[in-house]
Amino acid sequence: MNAAESQRRSEPFLPEINTNRRRCAQLSRRKPEKTSDESAEILSKEEIALFRHSVKQSVCVQMLQEGFHRSFSEVFLLLRADDDLRDLRRQAPLEQQKDKLETMRVHLSLAEQAERTGSWSVVCEQRLSLGQYFSIPEDVWLSLHFYHSCVDRQPGGSRPVAEARACMAELYLQRGELQQAKQQAELCIQQAEAGGWMDSAGRPLWLRARQTLWRIYSRLADGPLDAEDYDEALTLLHKGYSMAIESEDKQLEGEASYRLGLTYHSAGDHDRAKQFISTSMQIFGTLGNADGLGRCYKAMAKCMESEENVDETVDCLEKFADISRSNGLQHNLADAYLCLGNIYYRRNQYQKSSEFFLQSYEVACSLQDVDLLQRAQVWVASARAQTVIRKYSADVVLATEAALRRLLAWKQTRPLQEASRDDTDRTAAAAAAWYQLTDT
User: Fold this and answer.
1) DSSP state letters, 119-164
2) Exposed/middle/buried for residue 276 (C-beta within 10 Å: 0-12, 13-18, 19+)
3) Cα 263 to chain center, whole Å?
4) DSSP string, 298-333
5) d(CA 266, CA 124)
6) pLDDT value at position 38?
7) DSSP label of 13
8) What's the pLDDT tens digit per position in 60-104?
9) By mean pLDDT, which of 53-57, 177-181, 316-320, 382-386 is the weakest?
10) SS3 call for 90
11) How many CB atoms lie within 10 A of CB 306?
């Protein structure tokens, strides 16, 4: 009785409506338990240092802690050199470029470790990789540094050393340092032929070096050609031609033969010029190189014109135009029309020359090439003027009263007696395209 009565007294008279609030209060009084995720968020001293220190300091400290003191010294010297060159470049300082510094740290550390055990091939591979990594123009100095350091580690030669020389030859060629490029390419050929090595892409290094050496000889010949020293130019171009043949690259062989043909033509030896141009023409025809084949026909036309063989000249230029038209080479087509117009212009066939000049003008309008258009425009105007003046040149020479009357009558009626309606329409269409081009 007493127990039941006390139970009734303990129960609330009204139902509890704040159960959720009580449960929330109980949960809030519980102590938070540590989870594994929170413990995983605790950073190590090394990770904290990455946030506190600069990229340069972090990389250098890591190399010193790992015992790679030579690598640290090399990176430090490169950073100092970068400070000296900073005014010459627009990119961020090297010490702020984390990826580059980290890449140098990794490869230089591996190279130093291999050097301690005498694994010189591994040393050169790591330095070659660094040279290839710095590929943008602003980093060429870094690339050359690592290529040279690769060569210096094993001057007797190895696969990575030969590839480093091939890469240096190409870089020096890009920079215009032709003698340095020639020296490296020749050394690469000597070492690669002895070892039979391939580059990283699987190409024979001796072939790659010969291709580069052809480009070097071609560039070396530019100076003598500008000075009209054709004997020296031909000597260099023949050396390049030999390299092109030995490179087993038919495209290079065709270009080398074409360049020799042009030089022989400039030197006045038209027979040798036609011989090399014909060789180039056969190669480009076999390769299906329409641009090269068209250039060969244009060069052959120059040789024929020098021998005053007008029919053959026109035939070559018409083939040049046909090849350009059928292959969609619009710039070459405009050039072919200009060449044909000039042939007829020099033969005083002004009406026919104006037709070709006008075709070149129309192609230039479609290409929106302002320089080409202006050249064609001048030739069209000159040929049209010669066509009109020729009719009245005799009256100008006579200078009699009757002749002067005819000239005055022509002057008064000249706007009504211009070229035919078809030519006027074509000129108007081309002019409309020109005004549309200049407005934009």
Assistant:
1) -HHHHHHHHHHHHHH--SGGGHHHHHHHHHHHHHH-TT--HHHHHH
2) buried
3) 26
4) HHHHHHHHHTT-HHHHHHHHHHHHHHHHHTT-HHHH
5) 47
6) 47
7) S
8) 888 898 999 999 999 999 999 988 876 666 678 888 899 999 999
9) 53-57
10) coil
11) 13
